[in-house]
Write a structure and sequence with these properties.
The complex is a heterodimer of chains A (450) and B (295). In chain A, 52% of the residues lie in helices and 16% in strands. In chain A, strand 12 and strand 13 form a beta hairpin. In chain A, helix 3 runs parallel beside helix 4 and helix 6 packs across helix 7. The longest helix of chain A is centred in the N-terminal third of the chain and has 38 residues. Chain A starts with a helix and ends with a helix. Chain B is globular. Helices cover 72% and strands 0% of the residues of chain B. Chain B is mostly helical and 295 residues long. Chain B has a single domain, classed as Orthogonal Bundle (ABC transporter involved in vitamin B12 uptake, BtuC), CATH 1.10.3470. In chain B, helix 5 packs across helix 6. The chains are: A alpha/beta (450), B mainly alpha (295). Chains A and B meet through helix 1, strand 2, helix 3 and helix 4 of A and helix 10 and helix 11 of B.
């Protein structure tokens, strides 16, 4: 009995060995193909005409998110248009790809500047920037120089590495003011915000929004000499409804988080979770359909890019974080040979915000969307349509613009005046928006504004 | 090439998990969750300062990962054996359970106070250092290959391996041959759990530069399911799996060059990779399906 089985098993294992050999052959051939195909096309696209290239290594998601990553690629496209540089793109599929992607780009002799998009690339940027001292590295939202300071103290600040960060708190204050003034104008009791994963960057959004709301209602009081209607009657600590959803990808959560806010009486919900805005949009669309509205209220507020076109008439404005300008400015610095100089003077950190300057020249990176910059971003939608083959734009560009304009005109002009005044005050440094960096800071904000 | 090996390191292990399940006649897709738990254990043990441990710190961390992977696999094993819950159902659910547990613990408990988007990094003493400069390949690859070899000998040379194969060829056959079916099933799950647990551990302690779990779980996500493809290409044989994982790693790593030099859209690269894997795994898939249908 046993011998029979044993022999049988031997037969099986022989078959297995045969299979293994087969697999080895397949693996070898496929491996060979993979290797050769890696190398073969090297010579083809690297035409000698383009001696200067920049590489953009995106975070997970890549093109088509209509916000963060697309903005970075837009910066690359703008640089290509204005400076004639070549642009190569590498999309990270997982966190494991960061380092190999950065290295692949750095090994290309024509690539002078490598931009890593997203705070998760921090360590990877440090590692690769140390390996390639002759290449320039810029990180969007990263804190790479802090890591250098911590781990390689003698090299701080690394001369070929620049962290580009943004004053999101200031932009959030502006849209917070906008939302709360609109709530006063339309007699709504609340405003809302839906956030992603609770990371310090998002505290800046949270604090700014709440602070801006409060500033705006005080401004209303001093301007009109009475308490604002609607939201003015709500106790300070419950004016802003807010939720951390714990995700930057689960669009449904945007819907489930914002729906009750609108039901409770929020005039606008601020999207601080990238694609979750589409979920918020769905909640708004439902209400619009039920009440047969052609424009808000209710509204939602876009983030990162100008998202006003996604649902024209229902996106009151967007807090624009001009990642594209970050890429653009970094390219410019390299071209003008100012990169290391700027790194040295600023300890490797470049902050773009409202009224920020490089060498006395205005270099801003935060603003509230306007009607004028809508065109640029409708173009982004057209590009996305071309890339994905899916319909992205909700209407023809002209119709979108007309709708957004009609919505903006329908909102009382003093609302926009209030926002403008806050922006001027921030630019002149007459008010300072709280910037929470530690858990204690954000706790203080929450104690104050709920 | 070294970069390729770095990608294959965890895949060989998760491939083993699926392969050993198939060999026992189980469709065990719980590898994903066991990877999460293994990674979590690695962060917990690896970031604890065990000054007396010295180099044993690495070993301790890996043992912890293996143990917790094993424990996580014990749950579907017991459910299957004593309650008849189908392993596909229980493992899918447990994958999600593990996902949310890991998400919670890595964002609330083991979080790096200075950098809340990731967990604490494991200490130097429990890290594998890179063996080829300029790549992310670390000594972890040896652990991975050694484990696969150990499984090879276990399956082909031991009584347990023999009993596993018997059970794989049919429950009735195994019963007739006097195999303790329950025991072998549980062992099969546990062996799978150990391999995936180690894979999770290696993803944390043998992958530069962060040596931590990102709050998105992005650096430990997906390996369990990719392991299924690796196992299918490797014909469920540990040696075959080592080779298949290298092939798979090569495909993953090579995709970057398609994108960079040939300018192919990254999504198309993924689709091409998927096609390669599907076509390579077809024969084995048909064999498994055929066996299921015949039953």
């Amino acid at each position: 009995m046993t011998t029979f089985h044993a022999r049988n098993l031997k037969g099986i294992s022989r078959a297995v060995i045969a299979v293994v050999i087969l697999v080895v052959i397949i693996a070898a051939v496929a491996g060979y193909l993979v290797v050769t195909q890696q190398r073969a096309p090297v010579a083809v696209p690297t035409t000698p005409a383009q001696k200067f290239k920049i590489a953009i290594v995106s975070d997970i998601g890549g093109r088509g998110d209509l916000s963060f990553n697309d903005m970075a690629f837009k910066g690359g496209d703008d640089a290509k248009r204005d400076f004639g540089v070549g642009v190569v793109e590498l999309v990270s599929k997982t966190e494991q790809d960061y380092i190999p992607n950065l290295r692949t780009a750095a090994q290309d002799p024509d690539v002078k500047l490598i931009v890593g998009v997203g705070f998760l690339l921090t360590e990877s940027l440090v590692t690769v920037a140390l390996e390639f001292p002759n290449k320039f590295f810029a990180g969007i939202d990263t804190s790479a120089q802090e890591v250098v300071k911590e781990k390689y103290k003698d090299k701080y600040p690394l001369p070929n590495l620049l962290d580009i960060r943004f004053e999101e708190h200031k932009g959030s204050a502006l849209v917070g003011a906008l939302a709360c003034l609109a709530a006063a104008a339309y007699n709504y009791p609340y405003v809302g915000m839906v956030l992603g994963i609770e990371i310090p960057v998002l505290w800046k959004f949270e604090a700014g929004y709440k602070w801006g709301c409060n500033w705006a209602l005080e401004w209303y009081k001093s301007k009109f000499g009475r308490d604002p209607p609607g939201i003015g009657a709500t106790p300070v600590k419950s004016r802003v409804l807010w939720t951390y959803t714990g995700t930057f990808s689960d669009v449904i959560k945007g819907y489930t988080a914002s729906k009750p806010m609108y039901e409770k009486g929020a005039i606008a919900v601020y999207n601080v979770a990238g694609p979750l805005g589409l979920g918020i949009n769905q909640a708004v669309e439902e209400i619009a359909k039920a009440r047969n509205l052609t424009r808000g209220p209710p509204f939602w507020i876009g983030v990162d890019a100008n998202q006003d076109w996604i649902n024209p008439g229902f996106v009151i404005a967007s807090m624009m974080k001009r990642v594209d300008k970050g890429v653009y400015i970094a390219t410019k610095l390299v071209l003008e040979n100012k990169f290391t100089d700027v790194v040295k003077r600023n300890n490797g950190v470049l902050v773009l915000g409202i009224g920020t300057k490089i060498d006395g020249e205005l270099a801003e990176g935060i603003s509230v969307s306007t009607l004028q910059d809508l065109d640029e971003f409708i173009q982004m939608g057209i590009n996305a349509e071309r890339l994905t083959g899916k319909k992205v734009l909700p209407a023809p560009p002209e119709e979108i613009k007309a709708k957004v304009k009609a919505m903006r005109d329908a909102i009382p002009s003093w609302v926009w005046e209030g926002v403008k005044e806050l922006e001027d005050k921030i630019r002149r440094g007459e008010v300072s928006v709280p910037l929470p960096l530690t858990p204690d800071d954000i706790k203080k904000i929450r104690d104050m504004y709920g | 090439m070294a970069e390729t090996l770095s990608y294959s390191m965890p895949l060989a292990l998760t491939g083993l998990t699926f392969a050993i399940g198939i060999r026992t006649g189980l469709f065990n897709i719980g590898s994903e969750g066991q990877v999460y738990m293994g990674a979590l254990a690695a962060v917990a043990i690896g970031s604890a300062s065990l000054s007396y441990a010295g180099h044993a710190h690495i070993a301790l961390t890996l043992i912890g990962s293996a143990l917790i992977g094993m424990l996580w696999a014990l749950i579907p094993a017991l459910l299957k054996v004593y309650r008849g819950v189908h392993e596909v159902l229980s493992t899918i659910m447990l994958n999600w359970t593990a996902y949310y547990i890991t998400m919670y613990i890595s964002s609330q408990v083991l979080v790096d106070p200075a950098r809340p988007e990731k967990t604490l990094s494991v200490l130097e003493s429990s890290r594998f250092s890179t063996i080829v400069p300029g790549t992310t390949l670390t000594g972890g690859i040896f652990i991975s290959i050694a484990t696969a070899l150990a499984y090879y000998f276990l399956i082909s040379r031991s009584v347990l391996g023999y009993e596993i194969s018997l059970l794989g060829s049919g429950i009735d056959v195994a019963r007739y041959a006097g195999v303790n079916v329950r025991k072998i099933m549980i062992y099969s799950f546990l062996l799978g759990g150990i391999a995936s647990g180690i894979a999770g551990g290696l993803l944390v302690i043998a992958r530069p530069p962060t040596y931590a779990i990102y709050g998105t779980l992005g650096n430990i996500w997906g390996y369990g399911f990719e392991g299924i493809g690796v196992a299918l290409i490797g014909r469920n044989n540990p040696i075959g799996i080592i080779l298949a994982s290298i092939l798979y790693g090569g495909i993953k790593n090579g995709g970057r060059f398609m994108e960079y030099y040939a300018g192919i859209d990254s999504d198309l690269v993924k689709a091409i990779n998927g096609l390669i894997v599907i076509s390579l795994s077809m024969p084995e898939l048909f064999r498994i399906l055929g066996r299921l249908v015949r039953r």
